[in-house]
Specification:
The protein has 260 residues and is an alpha/beta fold. The chain has 10 helices and 8 strands.
Length: 260
């Protein structure tokens, strides 16, 4: 994997990439995460595809300006990021907040060929205890706070200590907490996707962890019912991040879908 930087609207954006194919996969991380959330899946997918994962503006090691982090802002960012890197015929993979952004991008952009959603936000408006704990861990970023909530987010309760320490370090960067909370508010203020899902016409794979306590699996049925022809895969032993918890199995399912 290679780490690179570019600029979008004058903001410095970090991204990681791998692979040399002319078929492009763009992976969008969730709230408070970074491109490194995809570090276990990118090398596998990159055997067949050119894979790019940005730190969305406000997160990771990209710039964190004092702006309103609405879903529309992130959609606009993704469009410009993709255009800057001159990528065509995209496969969008979005997790959690990134899934919400991916859906809105497909609804307004004709450069996406296939869509993979992993526990997407966009329908759930009420909070869950684990989401509340996650927000608290972002505002008070100690290793113990982060470790506890990541245990709640995974299916088996195991925690990657390297990623956990990176999360704590990132949340202490200037404006990181501001961007996080602005994104929470922006996501809550966004219109619910339910009534617009029928407009998604690209082949869509929906993946969800059965043990997801942050965005419960009951929402998977609503996305599946709303997106005509979509495929739903529920990963029995996983929590909110199946691409990080069981990357080999996750990639097998994604690659099979992309071949079909």
């Amino acid at each position: 994997m290679r780490q690179n930087f570019t600029t979008v609207d004058g903001y410095r954006v970090r991204y990681i990439e791998a692979g040399t194919s002319n078929k492009n996969i763009v992976c969008l991380h969730g709230l408070g995460a970074s491109a490194d959330r995809w570090s276990k899946t990118i090398p596998i997918l990159a055997k067949k595809y050119h894979v790019i994962a940005p730190d969305m503006i406000g997160f990771g090691y990209s710039d964190k300006p004092e702006i309103s982090y609405t879903v529309d802002f992130f959609v606009d960012f993704i469009k410009k990021f993709v255009e800057k890197l001159e990528m065509k015929n995209l496969i969008l993979v979005g997790a959690s907040l990134g899934g919400h952004v991916a859906l809105e991008t497909v609804l307004t952009y004709n450069n996406v060929e296939k869509l993979v959603l992993v526990s997407p936000a966009g329908i759930m408006k009420e909070s869950t205890p684990v989401l509340t704990h996650y927000i608290a861990a972002a505002i008070y970023p100690t290793f113990e706070n982060a470790k506890k909530v990541f245990q709640e987010m995974t299916g088996d309760g195991k925690v990657d200590e390297t990623y956990t320490r990176d999360f704590v370090n990132r949340m202490q960067l200037p404006n990181a907490k501001y961007a996080f909370m602005s994104s929470v508010l922006g996501s809550k203020a966004a219109p619910v996707l339910t009534d617009r899902l029928h407009r998604i016409k690209v082949p869509t794979l929906i993946m969800w962890g059965r043990k997801d306590a942050l965005i419960p699996v009951k929402f998977a049925r609503k996305f599946h019912a709303g997106i005509q022809g979509s495929k739903l895969v529920v990963m029995e032993e996983c929590g909110h991040t199946p691409y990080f918890e069981t990357p080999e199995r996750f990639c097998d399912i994604v690659l099979e879908f992309l071949r079909s």
